[in-house]
Amino acid sequence: LNKTSGGHIINLLSNDAARFDGVFVYAHYVWIMPIQLAITAYLLWNSVQAAAIAGMVLLLIQTLPFQGYLGKMTSKLRKDTSIRTDERVRLMNEIVSGIQVIKMYAWEKPFEKLVLTARNKEIAVLVKNCYVRGTNKATQLFTQRITTLFTLLAHVLLGHRVTAEKVFTIVQYFTRLQTVLTFMYPNAVTKIAEGRIAIKRMEEFLLLDEKQELIESKTPDEKIAIQVEAVTASWDGEVKVKTLDNFGTIIRRGKLCAVLGPVGSGKSSFLQLLLGELQPSEGIIR
What is the predicted pLDDT for the residue at 281? Predict the structure, then answer.
């Protein structure tokens, strides 16, 4: 159940599932971009001839390799953010569930520091993600201007005369390309990377082992209310030391029973077992 906590499921439904909206909106620009690039390059060639090659090469150098690198960074940061968000939400759920014990023993300050540490780790990754997004936005301010200036300079050096008609035409062409190469295409790469991370996280959740029903509705003796036989259970299936190992007991009808034992002996786990919150890996509960 540590992999299916309420916070983890809420994060999958609220954050990871929402990533698909952006994927379907921007993913098409991955194949639209080459077509628009080819058409615009043809129109530029008709306008400024060989100078168009210089402008297009500079534009591609400024955008595609750089944006691909930013997309990989965004994918990695998105994965790190999801892990830290899951940890923070899980921690908050546990604190809320045990708030009475925390208040009774005056443990507010230690748990406050624990939450702040988890939150600071999450914020550190979010800040890095904001820097990456800010760098991406900054490229939109100068890409079109530098490319236009470089194209006009190449056009003049080739012995042609610059006119207002050519300047405004080139500016419009590169503005359209800038929108696709520095906004739509980077967003497509980013959304696809985030979508892949979301799919992987959902796949890991959906491929978890199915819950095994080892609880029978009736006991063989009507005088017995609850019968537990050789039950082994653990909150984490990967650990070697089980929470309950080969545990068994009988609770008769009409009897008052108390669960006693030292801290960490499994009292709460036994009650969670009876409630069905802790699933046994072996044994039978009647």
Answer: 74
Fold classification of 6-207 (topology level) = ABC transporter transmembrane region fold (1.20.1560)
Within the chain, all domains assigned CATH 3.40.50.300 are found at 224-285
- Share of residues in the chain with pLDDT > 90 (%): 1
Where along the chain do the CATH 1.20.1560.10 domains lie?
6-207
Report the alpha-carbon distance of residue 189 to residue 194 in Å, rounded.
9
Specify the DSSP class assigned to residue 225: E
CA proximity to 62, closest of 115, 3, 139, 166: 139
pLDDT tens-digit map of 5-19 = 666 777 777 777 888
How far apart CA 244 and CA 239 sit, in angstroms, is 12
Non-local (6+) Cβ contacts of 115 within 8 A are 88, 91, 92, 95
**Which residue has tokens 């952006």?**
22
Residues 269, 244 contacting (CB under 8 angstroms): yes
More confident call, 98 vs 110: 110
The domain made up of 224-285 has a fold known as Rossmann fold (3.40.50)
Count Cβ atoms within 10 A of the Cβ of residue 196 and give its class: 0-12 exposed, 13-18 middle, 19 or more buried: middle
CA 189: distance to chain centroid?
15
Does the predicted TM-score (pTM) go above 0.70?
no
Q: Residue 106 class from Cβ within 10 Å (0-12 exposed, 13-18 middle, 19+ buried)?
A: exposed
Q: Specify whether the CB–CB gap between 242 and 194 falls below 8 A.
A: no
Among 29, 66, 28, smallest CA distance to 143 is for: 66
